[in-house]
Amino acid sequence: MRHAARLFVIPLWMVVQQANGTVHAQAAEVPNFTGTWTVSDQQDTGASPLGRQFTVTQAPGAITLETAGNAVTYQLNDSENTWTTTTVRGETRRRIARARFVSLALLVTTRTEAGTTGTWEDLMMLAPDGKGQLTLVSSSAALYPEGAMNTKVFVYKKQ
Q1: Which residues face 108 on adjacent strands?
Q2: Residues with Cβ < 8 Å from 25, sequence gap 6 or more?
């Protein structure tokens, strides 16, 4: 019986080692989104955090997303990236974002601290669709109805 247990343990150990190697290899592969991206059709991009067009600059460990002249650089190690914005009414908002790749998708969560207005968190995911396009999924806090999220999907083509 002891011999049969050894025969089972060795193949199981080999499967675990192979799985670990595969996971590490996949984690090391980060897609390159560098370039200018434009919405692929007549979608209403009013709710898109990246608007109708955005530009990506990518370096090892960091990615910069620029839209309408505003650029934000995210460290891709899930650490906090902090910056301040001012609304058209002159209100200051502190933004704290975390970014990382989940498989081939870029995941960005952004917490907004808006003083007496409150604090909320939004999510943005950019993923290649295998056809040379990027799909953006955005889920942001809704003012109305209370307790809801506005979730939108946009498709962008590289220029």
Answers
A1: 99, 124
A2: none
120-126, Cβ contacts within 8 angstroms, sequence gap of 24 or more: 122/49, 124/49, 124/50, 126/33
| CB atoms closer than 10 angstroms to residue 74 | 20
CB atoms near residue 63 (< 10 Å): 22
Rounded to an integer, what distance in angstroms lies between the CA atom of residue 149 and that of residue 67? 23
Report helix, strand or coil for 11. helix
What does the pLDDT look like over 49-89, one tens digit per residue?
A: 999 999 999 999 999 999 998 999 999 999 999 999 999 99
Residue 79 φ/ψ region, left for φ over 0, alpha for ψ in the -120 to 50 degree band, beta for the rest: beta
pTM of the model: 0.78
The b-or-e profile of 76-95 (16+ CB within 10 A means b, else e) is beeeebeeeeeeeeeeeeeb
